[in-house]
Write a structure and sequence with these properties.
CATH architecture: Sandwich
Mean pLDDT: 83
Radius of gyration: 19 Å
CATH class: Mainly Beta
Strand content: over 45%
Largest sheet: 4 strands, mixed
Number of domains: 1
Structural class: alpha/beta
Shape: globular
CATH topology: Immunoglobulin-like
Order of helices and strands: HEEEEEEEE
Distance between the termini: 44 Å
Helix content: 10-25%
Strand order of the largest sheet: 1-3-6-5
Low-confidence stretches: 1-27
Number of strands: 8
Length: 133
């Protein structure tokens, strides 16, 4: 009986592990936030992924794509959603969607800054290393 429970637990754990691995690097893509900055994402052409970054556009700051290799990833959508639209000064989330269009490696860099301030270090920088096989 104990062996059977152990075997069932092991099978369930392995299924959960492989499910998590396929979500992180397969055609189903992934979803990332500020906490994922600096990480590596392994994927393949045909996949898509999302990035959700907190911000407050009422301050003049906004998230903007600074660099990426568009032969590997293509921006597919971008929108800002205020968390409380009825409240002046409330923050929100900037949502990006990208498609994997080619093989190779690139670093996606998105910066949080005021676009009219040219020689100022961004308040925040999000980076994601993408490996498309």
């Amino acid at each position: 009986m104990n062996r059977r429970i152990l075997a069932m637990t092991l099978v369930a754990a392995l299924a959960a592990f492989f499910s998590a691995c396929s979500t992180a690097g397969g055609k189903s893509g992934g979803s990332f936030t500020e906490a994922d900055s600096g990480k590596t994402f392994e994927t393949s052409p045909g996949a898509a992924f999302d990035i959700h970054l907190k911000g407050n556009y009422t301050t003049g700051y906004s998230w903007n794509i600074a660099s990426c290799d568009k032969n590997i990833i293509q921006p597919a959508g971008s929108k800002y959603t205020p968390s409380q639209p009825q409240r002046v000064g409330s923050g929100g989330i900037h949502h990006y969607t990208f498609n994997i269009v080619g093989k190779g490696q690139t670093t996606l860099k998105i910066t949080y800054h005021r676009v009219w301030e040219k020689d100022v270090t961004p308040a925040q920088t999000f980076t994601l290393q993408i490996i498309s096989k």
